[in-house]
Amino acid sequence: MTVLNDPIRVGVLFLRRKRPGFDPDWGTEMETAAKAQLSQMNLDVFIPAERIVDGASLRRALEECTEAGAEILVTLQTTMSDGRLAPILGQLWDAPVVLWATPEKQEGSMISACSLVGNHMFASTLHLLQRPFEIVYGMPGEGETEAQLDRAVRIAHAVHVLSNAKVGLIGNHAPGFVDMHADPFLLSRTFGTQMQHISLHEFLSVMEDAPEDSVLVDIGRAQELGLPLLDVSEDELPTSSRYYVSMKQIMEEEWLDGLTIRDWPELPNIIEQWPYLAMARLSSEGKALGCEGDVDGTVSCLMAGALGCGVSTLSDWLEHDHSTVTLWHAGNAPFQLCEPMGSERGPKIARHFNNQKPAVVDANLKVDSPITLFRLWHCDGDYFLMACDARTIPPRRPLKGTNGLAEIENHDVVEWFEDLCHAGMPHHVSIVQGYHADTMRRFARQMRIHWMG
Known about the structure:
This protein has 453 residues and is an alpha/beta fold. Helices cover 37% and strands 23% of the residues.
């Protein structure tokens, strides 16, 4: 089970030549500056001790990186290395590689590094070998270079996370939501992600056997959140804590990186409560959660977390006009996406809009906030990804549950919606704070899936 907040373990390879070339002093200066920048980032950096100058030393360095637990590689040629190393790299390392090219010395008439040329050659070779890579070009220590490097590392990390991830599905898709039916084999072939099915009966057994002391402790923790009660009594909170404890237990015992649940129609009828408050709490803690059997939606949220975008949630695309989309769901949004706790439209524990059973979270999405609308889905034997930067504005009317209005500038929403429907996109979209559409576009390129920005 991946812990997304841990520093990313990065193997850094400085690729050199057996015979000196170009300006070795400049190359050494760039190496020193690159090491200084890497040490200041939120990375767990491993650099092999051996000088990498040929195939044999590269092989030994890659073995060291593997033994050190490196998830991804960053390679640098501060002066142009041997191009014959690229096929060896592609053969022995199938995870993404970040190619970092450093600039020329801006003095004199001689070529000082040829770093970009060397990395360009590596990029072309890796592409022809169908090996994933990201490329960074810039002076170590500059803000733009650090931003490029951070994005490239996170994209490579997300590929690594999904390739080792496991998601659980409790029950199946909700009645009629057959477009969300999971394809575990396509999911595995595309991302490497495995899916485990858990029956509703198994889940109900876990809830029934949940340790009472754990439930009592969690009731106290839930009360400490300070969520106001809206037509809900404190006597009704233990069931939500039982949901929370049970879902968390399943994720920990089965080593799940994400969890999808068929939350209706059975659960509120059998348990007499909805699981949405528990889901909102888990999502607020950074867990990838999906409702209504939407496994691809859960993987969307897992992808966003691995990319460093933060917590996310699923929402219905309720209605739209040419420039806005109304975002609504029955009440399972993480608290970070909502108006502040204690404010008029901040999170409150409430009853479901339809059958008046607890426990859902009524809240507006935080207004005047940059967000990204995004979605992974499968259709016709392939995966698709769409993402669009937007900004929340005040909703036009109050709605129970999660309520938000997103303003979109770079699309005619009416036409865009038609295109997405014709590509088979389900009715759920994911929401995350910040502008991340370009990062997600690059992730789609890494995974060789269809991009629909």
